[in-house]
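Structure ticket #2291
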Amino acid sequence: KDVDNPVLDKQIQAVGDSYEGRILIIDASTLEIIRDSYNVDIGKTIVWENVIKTIKGEPEPYLDEANQYLIVPAPLTNSDGDTVGVFIITKNMHYISQNIEQFLSYMLISSIIVFSLAFILAVYASVHFTRPMRKMNNNLDSIIREHTRELPEELSYIELENISEKFNEIFSKMQISRSEERFSRNAETDL
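Resolution: structure written out below.
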């Protein structure tokens, strides 16, 4: 209750400034504000439900959503454990909403970049990975039109190489069976 303590006042002011908020110290017996970091309400009585609860040992923070303030009371106790006062810090929460808005804008920009890169990568992968398939398709078309009898030897993917080998085996067996048919027809004709 020492009203004239400049060191305590400077410390309260420094804490209030560091938190960018207001600090009040209230006497538990009279509910009188004995310290105020703004030096505005010293000597006034505060009757507030959260102060009473804090004196009873049930401190409860309060969020004033309309004005975006967080008010946190804490009991001040003596060496016997008795509550002799209440320490209240009031903090403007506007910076949190600013941080949320900034974070959301960063998230939006990051999402756009990630999705753009994913789209570009998907297009590149699609073009790159379908090239051997197109090559095989063109060669199969050539075989169907009887321009050639074999699929290309150089393909860039193992699965396509295996498919190409199997098709080449089928085509070579078909050629053998055609040759056998011609031979048997020629043999029948000769007989």
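Closing remark: Helices lie at 6-18, 49-55, 94-144, 158-190.
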